[in-house]
Structures are given as structure tokens and as C-alpha cells.
Amino acid sequence: MQALTSAVLAAFVAYVGAWYFGMVEGNFALLLFLASIITGAYWLAERFVFLPQRQRAAAELEVQTLKRNEELGKLGISKVDDNLTEAKHRLLAQPWWLDWTAGLFPVIIGVFILRSFLFEPFKIPSGSMIPTLLVGDLILVNKFEYGLRLPVLNTKVTAGTPPQRGDVMVFRYPPKPSLDYIKRVVGVPGDEVAYLNKRLSINGKAVPTDTLPEFFDEDTMRYFKQFEEDMGTAKHRLLNDDSRPAFVPGAGEFQFKQNCQYSVEGVMCKVPEGHYFMMGDNRDNSLDSRYWGFVPEKNIVGKAFFVWMNFGNLKRIGPFN
């Protein structure tokens, strides 16, 4: 078992290392699932096989020691340094290969359940959601708001509440589902979304906006026009960059692209059933549905709702819209 455990642990370390250095495309959900299964098997084996074996060995040692002491007592030897307590402790102690497998199972299964069905942490890697979310924000995503999904398979098992316009949602990037993206829902199934001359309209009605003071981006050391947008649920802020054109450069091929019309003014799309149209709040610096298309319902991960840490700015901690 020691050799088998060493091989299993080495395989996990090799996989994580290859993932870290970009040699393989990692899947953390799958890795956590496999870790739960493997450590769970060791935990069951420890509870029902290995621990009882050690307990029987310790009990047998105690019987043999007591018997030996009785025999020595008959010979007039009353003081015997048998180190029984220490010997039993050594016999009952978990070997290293169980300590690193069965011993970790409660922690791993707890993380697996929490991450799969309740809340999952993410780190904001880019500025596409500025000013709502900043680079370095560590956020929590509600995994049950839109319905519970089986881990790894991502199969929906409960109905939940459908995503609403204005929600900040984490989803699997359609061109490459192994990547997680975060954007704002601006179009739900059946909507006609138009983003023309940097103004958003839904079903022929312009989304109300109010002008706010300019936003200073510390990373680029620039000021950007800032607005407050009201989609009917909660107001949120967005940015526009006057140096960027209104048209969408370099839009790729994607499913249902025939539902979209591109022009020098921007883009207009009819959202198909079972799909969503996503945009970043940093409107001129966001790779979103304007470029790669609609997000299918099966790609949904959850609703982002809380910044739990930003090591560069603790004032960022708290809920957001």
C-alpha cells in the first residue's frame, strides 16, 4: 500500500505541476472530485480494515505483556520496564500514507461539497468588469441561485431562478469551456439586444443611464467616462472609452451568429432560447458576447455577489451589484 499511495500522490503532484507550468489544461473540479473519491476510499479502508488491524495488534501486545509480567512475577521480578503505553501508541498511530490520504478526506470532502453546491471563490484576472470589479478582487459565486448542478458534469438537477438582466454571472467561456469568464447579463432568451453608438437598448427601449463623475483607472493612469445604468433590478456603473470606436472589430464565428447584425454603429442581436447575451461593465475593454456570441444555459456556473478579499484594498470587501 505504501508503494501504491506513493504512486498516487506522485501522479497528483505531477498533474498539478504540469497544470501550473501550462503543460496540460487543468480541471480543478475534476481534480477535487478524484481526490474526494481516492481519499474517501482510504478513509473507509482505514476505518474498517487498517484501524481494526492496529487495534487488534495493540490488544494482543497488551495481553502478551501482561502474561510475560505475570511469569516474571512468579520468578520474583516485580519491576519490569516494558514500555507498554509507548509501544501501543506506536502500533495505533497512522502510517504516513494513511495520514496523507484518509486523514485529509474530511477536509477535501468538505471543500468539495462547499465549492460544488454552495459557494465557489474566484479571482478577477482582468479589467473587463471595472468599475464594478477590479483586478485582484477575490469574489464568491452563489452555486445554487440558478439551480444546483452536478460537479464535473455540470448537469442541472434543480430548477433554481433563471438569470436576470443585470446579474453578474460566472460561466464557462463558450469557445473554450475549460475557462471561466465573468460578465453581466444584458440579454435573456428572446431579447433583442442592441449596442449602437455605445448605448444599450433592449427590445427597442434604451436602458436608462445617468452620467457620473469620470472614473480614474489607477492601472492605466487614465480617466474614463462613467455612467450609472438601470436595468430594472439594481443600478450598476459602467465605463466608456472615447478613444475606442463604436463598431465591433474582429468578431469571430459562433453559433447563432445569424441572429446578429454588425454595422459601423455597433451590433444588434436576437438572443436565442436557452442562451444569454453578456457584456462587461468596462464596455470598450471587454471581450464579451459581441465578439464570441451567446452563453448557453449549460455553461452557467453561478451568480457572483460578494468581494471577500482584495489584498491591495480592504475597502473593496462587501457585496456588489
From TrEMBL:
Subcellular location: Membrane
CDD domains: S26_SPase_I (cd06530)
Transmembrane feature ranges: 28-45, 97-118
Keywords on record: Hydrolase, Membrane, Protease, Transmembrane, Transmembrane helix
Domain of life the protein comes from: Bacteria
Species this chain originates from: Rhodoferax antarcticus ANT.BR
Topology of this chain in the membrane: Single-pass type II membrane protein
PANTHER family in the record: CHLOROPLAST PROCESSING PEPTIDASE, SIGNAL PEPTIDASE I
Family, similarity comment: Belongs to the peptidase S26 family.
Entry-linked InterPro entries: LexA/Signal_pep-like_sf, Pept_S26A_signal_pept_1, Pept_S26A_signal_pept_1_CS, Pept_S26A_signal_pept_1_Lys-AS, Pept_S26A_signal_pept_1_Ser-AS, Peptidase_S26
Protein name listed in UniProt: Signal peptidase I
One of the protein's GO biological processes: signal peptide processing
EC numbers: 3.4.21.89
Active site: S128, K183
Primary localization: membrane
Residue span(s) of domain Peptidase S26: 98-309
Catalytic reactions on record: Cleavage of hydrophobic, N-terminal signal or leader sequences from secreted and periplasmic proteins
Cellular-component GO terms for this entry: membrane
Recorded GO MF terms: serine-type endopeptidase activity; signal peptidase activity
Signal sequence region: none
